Amino acid sequence: MAYLLQVDFKMEGPYGEEMSKGFVELAQSINDEPGMIWKIWTEDAAAKEAGGIYLFETKETAQAYLEMHSARLTSFGIQDIRGKIFEINEPLSMINHGPIKNK
């Protein structure tokens, strides 16, 4: 069973194209995280919020990533990090074209 990790936090920026250019190395490194299948980056510049939706192979790898990522964000001065892990109902998600695929 795959697990979804939802993370969001307040962030001053950058956003948009500047974020896309500035976080390339970080994005590439996330691909090497144990159990990570995919990530969708999220941002709302007007609300000054950013985060991501991740799919992990196991609950344990999702939890380990959340702990590591929260510590990394805290080291950047980001506070009030919200993270939630959800089980995925794969049969219903597949009906709605959910991107639930292993690497």
TrEMBL record:
The keyword Phosphoprotein does not apply. GO terms for molecular function: monooxygenase activity. It holds the Pfam family ydhR. Keywords: Monooxygenase, Oxidoreductase. InterPro entries: Dimeric_a/b-barrel, YdhR. It comes from the Bacteria. The keyword Cell inner membrane does not apply. PANTHER family: MONOOXYGENASE YDHR-RELATED (PTHR39169:SF1), PTHR39169. This is Monooxygenase. It comes from Psychrobacillus soli.
